[in-house]
Amino acid sequence: MSGAPAGKARLGILLSGRGSNFVAIADSIAAGRLDAEIAVVISNRADAPGLAAARARGLNAVLLPSQGLEREAYDRQLAVELRKNHIDLVCLAGYMRLLSPWFIREFPMRILNIHPSLLPAFPGLDAQRQALEHGVKFSGCTVHFVDEGLDSGPIIQQAVVPVIEGDTVETLSARILNEEHRIYSEAIASLLAGPRLVDTESSGTPAR
Ligand code: GRF
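^ thats the input. predicted complex w/ 5-O-phosphono-beta-D-ribofuranosylamine below
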């Protein structure tokens, strides 16, 4: 990435909670399905189980508390931590804070997110509940680039999950989550295997 030759792609994971998508990515790397390394896992919440899981795996796990900080001020701290770790891609994995436009411009087309619906349907919170309440027959999940809108950036990969008679938010969420765990790693792998990500170093906003 960024014109750097050899070496594995370095992922920076941002999370706020459970961290099952992060664990799935770490498992894919361990199983050799994803040729990358997790350079840093950053949580904005001290009590995030995902942060504990990162520590348990011996990864570079960083707590950067966000409480009381204005959005861009916090994001500037985040960027310092990510740059210190020379990351190539930022992977949001249940990261429950909106990113500032400043941060998104700092890492253009290098921030990924996973969302539990078939975007552009049901952006925002409670996507599985929105899908059930709407009465759709199929939902799913989406890996996409993050832009300045709400869950609106270019789509990288999706998986379809049928809604079954009698589904609750919990049962549908669990089936969607299984697919999330599969496609997040696949989407990262496909990006890394594709044409090189745009070298942003010359524009003064290097990704590593
Ligand atoms: C997932 O459903 C993901 O799609 C959404 O937040 C949830 C995070 O789950 N963005 P986990 O923390 O990865 O287990």
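DSSP finds six helices and seven strands in the chain.
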